[in-house]
Design brief:
Blueprint (H helix, E strand, L loop, with lengths): L1 H8 L3 H12 L8 H17 L10 H24 L2 H9 L2 H15 L4 H8 L3 H11 L4 H30 L3 H24 L5
Helix pairs in contact: 1-3, 2-3, 2-4, 3-9, 3-10, 4-8, 4-9, 6-8, 7-8, 7-9, 7-10, 9-10
Length: 203
């Protein structure tokens, strides 16, 4: 696998690509940021297991911190844009049951001093976008939202990197390892969606 993507994973530019992909997928959830993180981590696993690859394979810690920081920055940008969105954005959110529902649940979670919803939403498809935009549009305090956003980004990045790295260690640096790891990430997303939907609705 690494021979075919070596130009990407064997270059420092992998961190730039990971950061941009993760940062932008808060606005474009279709971007395969998770797949890119897993592929880079699988390359790192191959680099630690064999001597056949370039020593420039991604560093696991740097990759995790890069993805987590980009996730937080993207959330902050979406939060601030939604905060300043004005009446037009408020009307758009009011027309979306999903965004309105997310606002209600996020407000309830933050009022209780907890942010499990923010962490769960980071794993759910488009959940990060809904929560970040909802928090900004509802004018939730940054000190209530951003620490949970940082924890969510770190949890997601750590989980994604671990999937790619250990998948590469156990199954080898193959497309099978990357595919199994991506399926595990999708499974976590499906589980997050189930838990969020099962959570008690706000009074």
């Amino acid at each position: 696998m690494l021979e075919s993507v070596g130009a990407l994973t064997g270059s420092p530019w992998i961190y730039v690509m990971v950061a941009l992909s993760v940062l932008l997928d808060v606005f474009l959830p279709v971007l395969p940021s998770g797949v890119l993180v897993i592929t880079a981590a699988t390359a790192a696993a191959a680099g630690s297991a064999t001597g056949r690859v370039s020593p420039d394979v991604p560093d696991i810690l740097a990759l995790t911190l890069c993805a987590a920081a980009a996730s937080l920055i993207g959330d902050l940008v979406a939060y601030r844009l939604a905060w300043r969105g004005g009446e037009r954005l408020d009307r758009a959110i009011a027309r979306s049951r999903r965004l309105t529902h997310a606002q209600e649940r996020l407000g309830q979670a933050l009022a209780r001093g907890g942010g499990a919803l923010v962490i769960l939403a980071r794993f759910a498809p488009a959940g990060r976008s809904v929560v970040s935009l909802g928090a900004g549009a509802a004018h939730r305090r940054a000190r209530d939202f951003l620490p949970w956003s940082a924890l969510a980004g770190l949890a997601w990045a750590g989980y994604s990197v671990a999937l790619g790295y250990f998948g590469g260690q156990w199954l080898g640096a193959t497309w099978l390892a990357a595919g199994v790891s991506v399926l595990a990430l999708c499974g976590a997303g499906a589980g997050a969606v189930y838990v969020v939907r099962r959570a008690p609705k706000p009074a």
